[in-house]
What does this fold into?
Amino acid sequence: MSFVDNLYNCFTTVCKNAGKSKRSVEDIVRFFRLRVEVEEDHMRGLEKLANFSMMIQEGTILNAVNALKNDCYSRAFQAKTFIESINTDIITVLNNIQKSQSDAIRPYYMEAQKIQRIKDGYLDEIQNCKKKYWKSCQECEKITNALEEVLNQKEREKLLSKLAIEKHNLDENLMNYQDSVESYKKFKAGVKDAMTPVMNVYELQEKERLESIKDSLRKLVVYDTSYIRNIQYDLDTLAHYMESINPYSDIKLMIDESQSEFGEYPDIDFESYNGEHPAFKNFSSTLITIPVPLQEKWAEVPILGSIREMYESNLEITAVKVFKGKDLNSQDFQQFNTLVKDSIGRKAWLNVLSTKPSKLIGRGLEFLAELMISLLNECERVSDADIVKQVLKYINTFTDDSGETLLKFLKVHSIWGKLEIWEKVITQHIQEEIEAREVYKIFDSIEVQESVIKNIVFCQLGSIASHMCNFQVEKMYAGEILSKHACKYNLSAEDIDTLMATVDPTQKRPDPAEIITSVQRGVPDWLKSITTPPPKRSQSKPLGKFIFDT
It folds into this structure.
């Protein structure tokens, strides 16, 4: 069974099949390239793990950690070898076969096309001769039928004369028709010999393509097997190092080094402070009263604004590192935690953030999230709702290259479960928005004032409801807080339904009898662009007053 014996007269089918076979090879090449991309990503991840810096520098665990990193490096090297093998021995080979076959088949394809055109010429000639022959037969038949019906001698003579002419044409067309059929039969008898070289090349290339695919898959199995066995060997080595960890030895080493480094507790005596001011001469435990500056001396004490500027200067250094994607060390985090322990530092940090671009590069968003978590820890400790309210503005402001926001890192913080924080945030949001819009100054009518305030409250509660959903606040508690403030400002039943549906579509609104439903619907044009205004900076006061008030 071969192409020559079975398919020499089916060149079109053979040609289409060759095209499908070529596309199959191309698909396999694309598959292997995708496999290479996957392995390259895996290799880069392993290299990153192998280069990971750890603080462990001594003890038996150090050998285990180094073995773990070496295992990652070895896996990365195995992946690199696997990638090179696929590229060199599979993808390149298949591409070369495709190219060489394409160049080799071209003259044979042209020869086959030439034979096809000759065949088409014969078939067209046969059809034309057949058409003329049949037409002559029809004319002769028509005249013969007329002769049988006509009795007039003159008309019969005319028909006989015409029949003689048509008979001559019929003989000529018959001869042409028979010659064309005989010529085609002779051509057809020689087609197999003419198509033999073409069919042999097509069959040879088809076998070569199938064999190359088979060899490629065999190679993949071999490379995969080698890859897995090498990894298994590395795992056995890694297990040996894991078992060599000796906690007792490491603890003893730490104790011995600590004793030699620090020794016994040193003796420390109290040392009095000696300053230039008379009140601070030999300042010791016997002098516990600190003189307070007189009222007329407050102007000489640095004002609160200068303290805030000092905070902002220190925090700006940290922010620059974060937004440039540089790593923060433990000293940076320690300094930040110290600065945000008081309200001045927390406000200064938010002021610094307000001047920064929204896009962070590298791991900047991760570092910023760590700092914001520290900020929220302090806010939770002292119940600082004002700072939390401002943090909400930055939840979706800052993004990294992949589009992630701070919400991903901050939504699990425990502060969002503090209902008293949400109570304060909602109250401040509403009051600040009413004051910012100067409702009581712009509108004289109490009815209009109430209508505008209801619209403001509805907008602010809707914004808070969205935040509550993002932070996964318990639906029941979120609904209670929102309905409480909605009822406080007499929002309509429809507005309350809308707010409740935001946090929980299945939650029912409070008793309609407790809600005033005569609220004017619609939002004024000037109110459609409502956004939460930035918090106003508090007025600076002298440092002395700040110190002794606290």
Remarks:
- The mean pLDDT is 77.
- The chain has 17 helices and no strands.
- The chain has two domains: 3-120+195-243, 321-549.
- The two ends are 102 Å apart (CA to CA).
